[in-house]
Amino acid sequence: MAYQALYRRYRPTTFDEIAGQEHICKTLKNQIETNQISHAYLFTGTRGIGKTSAARIFARAVNCISPVKGNPCKKCSACTEVNPVDIIELDGASNNGVEQAREIRDRVQYLPAGGKYKVYIIDEAHMLTGAAFNALLKTLEEPPKHVVFILCTTEPQKIPATILSRCMRFDFNLVPTEKIAQIINGIFSELNIKATSEAVNAIAAAGEGSVRDALSIADRCAAFGEKLDYETVTGILGATDKKTVLDFAENILTNNTGKILTSINELTAQGKSVGLLAKDLSQAFRDMLILNSCQNANELLMLPIDLFERLSKISKNAEIKKLLLALEIYTELDSKLHYSLSPRLLFEAATLRLATSSGETDMEALEMRIARLEKRGVTPITNAKPIETPPQVKAVAERDYDKARPIWAEVLQTVRGMNYPVLTTILTQLDSVWVEDKLMTVQCNNMQFTGLNDKDNKKILNDILVKWGLRFNPVKTENETAEDKKKQLSKVAGNIEVI
Ligand SMILES: [Zn+2]
Fold first, then answer.
1. How many A from CA of 84 to the centre of ligand 1?
2. Could you report the per-residue pLDDT of 83-100, keeping only the tens digit for each?
């Protein structure tokens, strides 16, 4: 016997077997029971969620001699006929011409061969041409009593309003993952395939709401063997394995720049797209957020126990703010990458930006930071007062410009000789340099500050300054404080942190 795809083999034959569309099935069954059949229906929704199945079941049910609670009885001649003559299925994509529509118009005049109704199911109805719609419209305007049209489409917006207004419309939902998992479990146990619940859940989730898509994936997995676990399924799906993704996420949370860049290199060398990686990462950070905010996280996540434990360990030390920022960045990135000429660069830049960020970007966070600092005895400034240096620094603070000059000249020369053009440029643009206690302090604007506060740059300068027993200390220019409150707050927090 020729192999039959799972989704064909397990097509529902009654309304009760259709998953996730209970609201629609209830109405349709009601119509059968009360014999209130309309002449035109429109079934809309994404692919593989039961539109055509519902249309076929409805077509059987309207001609069924003794329907069971609105479902076809599956026993009478109308229900058991292999190729029912009164159910005409057309594909809008291949029967889209005016000829076919005219033929329908002419043929609908003839009475049904056996049952009460002739049912026309038009799949991909949005593919019909304007002329075909016009011909169809003539029929819909004065439909013979014995005719029922069911138009199925994924794109209802392409159906002319004149047709829409004559149809009873049903919007099919995406099917929840748990429901798809139930279906797959049923099929696997019938086929004697042993699969772990995590494996089944991974297959169901990959269907993204479409039963048909999930069943084609199940098909591929079933062909692989009689035992399925999570790793096998993710392998078949071609998803980046979760462990790698979690390692990557951990490196981001711990700001391990070196490892991040190496991993990106390795993964892209293996042929993974950064787009997929961004998707996987947003999933991982979402899982961590669930873990940090839900009691029954494992029931929701359905991950293998070792992965779950790994995930718990990583997210335990993560700030919710940073997780939220990560989720935001990767969700946004997913769409930006499609239009980017250099997706890898974009991905790297976003990842490094995230890794170095604390996740605190808003006023609330800054105020909390200041409150924390105040508790430690550091007083923030207000508009009226100049910046107060903490007491222990204040006692010895004296700016020595003369001492700084020759040292700074030597520093500049050394850096120039080391061939760091960007760092050299920043250093030559500074307007004020002084020695204060054991600190070589330089005053800089926000942009220079960001550059000089960089870990590597700081190290270069500290290594040079060690021979004078000094440490490099960039501070931001004071006159920028008088701006709006937000800027000021961020500046205060930044300054205090430097000390
Ligand atoms: Zn029947």
1. 12
2. 888 999 988 888 777 777
